[in-house]
Amino acid sequence: MGIALKKMVFEFKTKILNPKLNRIYIENRENQFISNLSNFNLEKRKAIVKHAYYHTKFYRKHYDAQDISPEKLQSDKDFESLPIITRDHLKKYFIDFISSNTNKKNYSKATTGGSTGTPITVLHDKRYPLTGIQWRILDWWCIKPFENAAFIYRLRRSGFKKLLNAFLWWPTKRIFLDASSMDKTSILLFIEEYNKIKPKLLQGYVGGVYEFALFIKDNNIRIEPPKAVWVTSAPLTKLQRKVMQDTFHAPVYDQYGTCEIMWLAAECKEQNGLHMMSDIRYIEFVDDNNLPVPPNIWGRILLTDLQNFAFPLIRYEIGDYGRALDYECSCGLKLPLMDHIKGRQSDIIKTPKGIIISGEYLTTIFDDYPDAVREFQIIQAKDYSIVLKYIPNTFEGLDDLIIKVVNDIKTRTRNQIPITTERVEKIAHFKGKTQFIISELNKT
User: Fold this and answer.
1) Pairing of strands 373-380, 437-439
2) CA distance 214 to 324
3) Cβ atoms of residues 283 and 266 within 8 Å
4) Residue 253 and residue 38: Cα distance in Å, rounded?
5) How far apart are CA 327 and CA 272, in angstroms?
6) Is the preceding peptide bond at 70 cis, omega within 30 degrees of 0?
7) 1, pLDDT greater than 70
8) Tag placement on the chain: N or C end, fewer CB within 10 Å?
9) pLDDT higher for 433 or 82?
């Protein structure tokens, strides 16, 4: 079916089924060029804090206990005095986060995958369709939302829901591969469907898309190059980006988002960093004393959702490390830049004497030699010992490189822990997601 007809059907269905969405999409496109975006963002923060205080039990009690009044919130510094919210708060007080002036029609439930511990549940506000942000990102890569697409995620649709989704998107074709159970049969079936519909977008978890790329490369299979490959949900290494770009013959774009708060930041075509969605989100980078760190300095990430009035999340500590960048992108967007996520706060190794090596370094140990290994993983046992697992690639001098990497880790840990290496044929993913660092130290 021609692209013009797809566009016409898509726009008609959007107008009939979700008229609010197109308005929000146009608004999002305008917002990315706001010159005083920081003031725009502050006003939205004032609104969500005031709403949370007067319409949720949790924030009313939490702020009253520290003598905080939303009326006194006038500056960034005032906002930085608000207490930080953690996963423990969500687990313990889930009901108290739900706004009193909302109902079940206004929200949908979302549950984290549990790759970093016990899964938690949050609510997303359906009154603000986030699809508009997705379309804005696709604009940056010259892709239309009605073009065919292929996805590699954990599948959540089956039976009637799957058929309904296909009907609602018709005539656009969308195919799915379950990242949590990828095997030869499912991948070959996906490739067959892929070559039939020739998607312009391939989107999915970093680990799942990378595994798909390796399968294509190993089996010398040809697929139609998409316009773009969109990856998310884990740090993207130089090794992975190079393999995927060489395999798919398309640019690979990194996007940062979480189950709790989606669409946080994404790369544009210039790939100068990730543009933060500062018209609908507020991202902070703080040190161990909860004080803001300057641009280019790594810090703990705090998130505020400026659009979720059903289940407010204000200064929520997601568990990731990141940093703001101090330059503007040449693309012309006013959305500020942040660096790529290098790992979670839990992605660390420790020594018996308290030295901590973070994922900021550990996820990049092969970045200077992207052709050396296919995948790697660092596992720390309860006795502090480390095993570096890796899948070797055809690379001259690999053994010497492995010794160099191990010696570098030994130097950083001051030779306090034993480090061994293990060549493996496969590294398991957690429900389709990459886990570079696994520590047994904090497990009971």
Assistant:
1) parallel
2) 32
3) no
4) 26
5) 9
6) no
7) no
8) C
9) 82
Q: Which two tokens stand for residue 130?
A: 């986030």
What is the phi-psi region of residue 18: left when phi exceeds 0, alpha when psi lies from -120 to 50, beta otherwise? Answer: beta
Q: Give the C-alpha separation, 369 to 153, whole Å.
A: 28
Q: What are phi and psi of 126, to 5 degrees?
A: -75, -10
Residue keyed to tokens 């013959």: 249
Q: Which of these, 153, 135, 132, 123, lies nearest to 58 by C-alpha position?
A: 123
Tell me the two tokens of residue 93. 């007080």
Q: 215-224 contacts: CB < 8 A, separation 24 or more?
A: 215/184, 215/187, 216/191, 216/247, 217/243, 217/246, 217/247, 221/191, 223/191, 223/194, 223/195, 223/248, 224/194, 224/195, 224/198, 224/199
State both tokens at 409: 């880790």
H/E element, 322: strand 316-322
Residue 280's SS3 state is: coil
Please tell me the distance from the alpha carbon of residue 197 to that of residue 174, in angstroms, as a whole number. 8
Residue ranges of alpha helices (H) inside 308-441 are 359-362, 398-412
Do residues 382 and 366 lie in contact, with contact meaning Cβ atoms separated by under 8 Å? no
pLDDT tens-digit series, residues 201-227: 999 999 899 999 999 999 999 999 999
> Which amino acid type is present at position 209?
V
Supply φ then ψ for residue 331, to 5 degrees. Answer: -75, -20
φ, ψ dihedrals at 327, nearest 5° = -130, 160
State the residue for tokens 């100068």: 272
User: Do 59 and 316 meet the contact criterion of CB atoms below 8 Å apart?
Assistant: no
Dist. CA 301–CA 287, nearest whole Å: 9
0.90 surpassed by pTM? no
